[in-house]
Amino acid sequence: MIVRSHIIYSRLTAIVRELSETLLRTARSKGLSEARHFAVGALTGDARLAAQLQSDPSHSYLIRASVAGLLDYFAFDLADGDIVVVGDPYSGGSTPQVLTFAAPVLFDGEMVLFPAIRAELADLAGSFPGTIHPTATETWQESMRVTPVRLYRHRVLQRDVLRFLLRNSRAESLMRSDIEAIVSALRAAQANLVALLRDRGRAAVSEAIAAAIAHADRLTRNMLARWDGLDRSVSAVLPYDAAPPATINLRLRLGNEGLHADFAGTSPTIDAPYNMTLDHARGYVLVAALAELLDEFILNDGVLDAVSATAPQGSLLDPRLPAATGAADLVTGHVVGALTRQALFGDAKAAERLDGMGPALILFRPIGASEENPPYRLDPGFPISAQGWGAPVLSGWKLLPSAEILEARDGFELLARELAGDDGMTVAVRNRRGALAAAALVPGAEAGALTLLIDGQEIGLSRAAGAPVSDGAVLRFHYPCYVGQDP
Amino acid sequence: MSEWLVGIDVGGTFTDLVAIGPDGAVHSTKTPSTHEQSEGVLVAIRRLATELGKPLWQMLAELPLIVHGTTVATNALLQYDGAKVGLITTEGFRDELEFRRSYKESVFDPRLKPPHAIVPRRYRIGVPERVTHTGEVLTPLDETAVREALAGFKREGIEAVAVCFLFSFVNPAHERRVAEIVAEMMPEAFLSLSCEVLPEIREFERVSTTVVNAFVGPRMHAYLTHVEARLRDEGFGGELLVIQSNGGVQSAQEAGRFAVSGLLSGPAGGVTAGTFLGELAGYPNLITVDMGGTSYDIALIENLRPAVTTETWIGRYRVALPMLDVHTIGAGGGSIAWIDAGGALQVGPASAGSNPGPACYGRGGHKPTVTDANVVLGLLNPDFFLGGEMSLDRKAAEESIRHEIAAPLGMSLVEAAVAIIDIVNNNMANATRLVTTKRGHDPQQFALVAAGGAGALHAGKQAEELGIETVIVPSFAPVFCALGDNVADLRVSEARTHIGLAKAVDFEALNDTFQEMEARARRRLSTQFSVRNFEIRRSLDLHYAGEVHEVTVPVRSRTRRITRLNLDATINDFHAQHERLFAHKDLAQPVEILTLRLDLIGVRERPRVPAADFGNEDPDAARKGTRPVYFDVEPTVTPIYDGAGLKPGNFIAGPAVIEQWGTTVVVYPGHECLIDAFGNFIIEVGQAQRTHSEPPPG
Prior knowledge:
The structure holds 2 protein chains of 2 kinds. Chain A is an alpha+beta fold. Chain A is 32% helix and 25% strand. Chain A is globular, with a radius of gyration of 22 Å. Chain A starts with a helix and ends in an 8-residue tail after the last strand. The model of chain A has no long low-confidence stretch (mean pLDDT 93). In chain B, the strands form 9 sheets. In chain B, strands 13, 14, 15, 20, 23, 24, 31, 34 and 35 form a 9-stranded mixed β-sheet that branches. A 6-stranded mixed β-sheet of chain B has the order 3-2-1-4-11-12, sandwiched between helices. The chains are: A alpha+beta, B alpha+beta.
């Protein structure tokens, strides 16, 4: 039985890996194909996470939470061939413009499994194209809220729903392609899951998932056991220049129920896009605590359930509508992750750091210049991790764009990209794409710098919202180096 | 075929030789590999000569060519035993090699160490120069800076110089000028220019491939020079060819210059042999698997054409040349069975290797392996390992499995051994499924070719799991790669970046570029072994504008010139291929061309292996006896056959075990095996054995 379950579960995980690979290869927007802002998973009919793949911590709990929200909303009104969608920080989500697509798999008339994809789409309304609005104070400035909707009913596209989504995007063509890629990948996964159920039987598949979850639970608790008796409180101030300072307090305890992150005493919601939903923050705690383990097997409920989190309602880490959350991954997640490592490893062990904020930039044509105004995420470098090479773990894995592709196809001339000694990485890019505008965020001096050089003048872009970037202007990025830096 | 063909493949453990005589008779030898690989090569040829009753010099004098597969380049890279390399690159871009496009093998694990720097930062020098993407010189090459860099390299004892400038694939003038200066200042240095090694867009992929070429080149060049000299000293007057990762062969001289092309020469030989076998046995669609001691290599052959990829990492280094797409996982006879912290049984990827090896080798290894499980289950005969040259310790195998697996998991010895085999079979089947589905295929459409020492032990179970109906165990399974060396064509692969939307393509420029590529390919082949027939294959790397990955699509044209009609047909093929691969096509989206590819193939005459007449179906003459074999937890008394005694036409109904030197073929219950006219074992698995399509229990 043990071996049979092992074999069945490994086939299920192969289906999830294929789902991820297919989306990566067919997505057109840079947010998916290069920045890999997506996660894929398979869930059971009662929204237990059977297997999930992700390239960054942000999605850890959110596919499960979003699918649970969809299940609640549609209750028993889901049928074979349906695809349902949700994308709302306040319906199991995190940052705006990230939608979760789920496709129920019915077998013998019952809902058994869900392949699901959680993906950041190129643009979904809001004040600026793309996903960065550094001065947003409420969620609608960042994006429209996509509460649960049905995109396909019995395999029939609900054109009104799709049209509604596309008409609210400045990147309609990119959005359409990405949604088609997502739907195709889900359909293929659905077929593979049906084949698995047919070949192995529903009961055996359920047993295999249960066994895999139990196995992951044992592995996770075994790893957490090294912090037996842990009960430590730590605190940090967000890199946010308004008064009063926004503080995150974390008391991390390891008990019989697992690792618990208690954010009591954390500041209330702030008028900036740094607010973070609780499950979103919990994902950063999980990855920070279990990073050494996470590449050894695929994520499932056995891992997720080993970490819990609480925060005061209406706080920075459990915000109330309409608080903005768009920069949570760029800023707040890193702070939560750093605090978690600090609590686990005690007094500042610089080399144990996994966080590492850096500059973020999205370019677009000046607002109002055209109907289609697809955002361009320009992310030509990365901070150097505390481990001395590569990007910090909490930044996730992004594909660094090729200088030659940037110049030959995208209209950006990369002038230099080099290590700056012990000072991180510097990148200089000349805009050859015509007149553009920038939405940028550099959360504090420790996160590096982003400057614009126009006609010999140097302009800081640390919180730029629509700043003009003329043709020929040079953007200079400085990504910090976290080696030897205490949190 | 009027002359001898000889292929020699040097692997980690053995040096294999396959020789096909003018009469089509096939001879093979297997000798232990030697640290100095040329020694093993000569020993293998000497053994062949002895078998044929000839002195070595006469044997060598009769050979018009020798095709060689070698691990020299691979070993140099994986053991960091390459040359001391200096890199000259565009100022401001010397760290691209280290950035690796931010790729890490583990997404989250902070303990992952960086790869060994085959060019430390102090030997990576940026010099002022810049060419635009259209080929205009924006900043002239600063020759003083180049000379300063080279002077520094000389002082530091640099052996190989790699040069990679931005957009050198559009305008290589600066790289070529650096080559002239290197020739002047460091004439002894090995030179690797990116415009020659990989003239394609994407600087990391290009610089990495160029640097790897520089790192392994001097070792490969020295080895090939040495082995050729030794062969000539002994009387060889023919041409030495080397098998490449793209499945073709090149002259030793070219292989030395472009050593990076030979990094996967061993597995490439196996895939090429698979193609030959498919042609011979009438199976155009094949999955070849090669299971040895530590790894399991999988490759796909569709319509007798092996799948090719440009997405290879070897060790931790990116090599973006077109190579046969050989997917490797850590599953072999030496794979260790272990229990993880969560109490689950795992097999591999760690391997006991050959020393100490599995517990049953009796060399001090105590960890249970796949080979130990096969011995316990009776699938492997401990007294007939390597044809009896080595005996295995069954008791040691039992003890290790009992102690390490059975007792902790509360299983019987046999249950534990069955579980080990089930898991390794499942790991291999999953990997095989991934290889086929990644290319948009169903494994059921393919026949499975099982090579390597352990391949035929497990192939029947793989086939059942994957729904494959036919397994082919080649008669030369233990020396399969060397067989491939004999049948590989000469091949030069050229690529040029040519970015543009397909609907707005400049046909004159497109055709000019293809003609220039063909001319260069012909120049590269003209120095090599004479061939009569040339075949040209052109293809385009295409994607929907915005996609990061491309799909390589053969050009639909029967003539040298590509017309709008040809291109439109090719674009239609792209849509179809995209849909097959990704279940998705978008006819409304603009299609972009990124790279032009051309393969010039010098078609070698195929050996004519004589087909034997079918004889009696009865295999009893080869029957050695019976023994209990555990196909499950209960034993089955199973007939054992001597593979060497089986004749074409013999038919064996499973269960049965066929033992021959170097490999054991298991015919599982319900399977049927026929010996074909070439001595291959054709195993029919049959519909009834597809466990995956059985109704669920209960």
